[in-house]
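User: Let's play a game. I give you a shape written as tokens, and you guess the letters that built it. Ready? Here's round one.
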């Protein structure tokens, strides 16, 4: 059976959703598939980027495990193309341990980053941690509306003037967290801990860059309804007119 068509499952298949494993080393992909099945997920294995992009549409995965060093199209390009069509969570897998690579992956839209060799059990734990983000909404509803912006926490969807916005997963998690706590101020360090995770060791500039991208997407959101504000020396705030 070709790598792009491998579909490993058991009696728990589909119970928690599908994990798409994009990895060209057969031994690694099979071990990962076994562990995610044991945790109650279905698995789909692809050995290269081209097959993976095709499989992504049919598998509709809950999360993608993406190796950086793939034959032909590398993992960075696969990530870029995935982000053009979806905000599905992505965890990068690589043998590179350089901090710069980790920052590139996270800033390009990856949700987490694991360096080989890794324990498969830890990969499953990371999968579960990413899929738990963001924390349970504190606004008392599955949805909140700030004027022309509507945010659906349950489906992790954001709409501006009725049109759905395509937002990179990490940026989306940041926006959802801020929207769960409207008009509260958060320091960068707090946002990194709650959104990026306590083990993140990259630059806190990641928060600034994520806010910059969100502001660009929300450019046509009237300021009197709401906006992401920078409070010098204090942090960030999603100002929202809750009566709009």
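Assistant: Ready! My guess for every position:
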């Amino acid at each position: 059976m070709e790598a792009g068509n491998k579909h490993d499952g058991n009696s728990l298949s589909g119970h928690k959703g599908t994990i798409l494993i994009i990895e060209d080393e057969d031994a690694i992909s099979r071990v990962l598939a076994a562990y995610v099945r044991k945790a109650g997920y279905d698995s789909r294995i692809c050995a290269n980027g081209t097959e993976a992009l095709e499989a992504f549409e049919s598998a509709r995965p809950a999360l993608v495990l993406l190796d950086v060093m793939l034959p032909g199209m590398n993992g960075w390009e696969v990530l870029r193309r995935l982000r053009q069509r979806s905000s599905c969570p992505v965890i990068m897998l690589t043998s590179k341990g350089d901090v710069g690579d980790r920052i590139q992956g996270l800033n390009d839209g990856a949700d987490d980053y694991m360096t080989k060799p890794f324990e498969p059990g830890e990969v499953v734990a990371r999968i579960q941690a990413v899929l738990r983000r963001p924390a349970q909404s504190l606004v008392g509803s599955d949805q909140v509306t700030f004027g022309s912006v509507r945010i659906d926490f349950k489906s992790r969807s954001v709409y501006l003037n009725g049109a759905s916005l395509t937002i990179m997963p990490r940026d989306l998690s940041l926006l959802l967290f801020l929207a769960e706590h409207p008009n509260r101020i958060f320091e960068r360090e707090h946002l990194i801990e709650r959104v990026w995770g306590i083990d993140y060791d990259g630059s806190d500039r990641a928060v600034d860059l994520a806010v910059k991208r969100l502001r660009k997407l929300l450019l046509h959101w009237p300021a009197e309804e709401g906006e992401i504000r920078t409070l010098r020396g204090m942090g960030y705030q999603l100002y929202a007119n809750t009566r709009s």
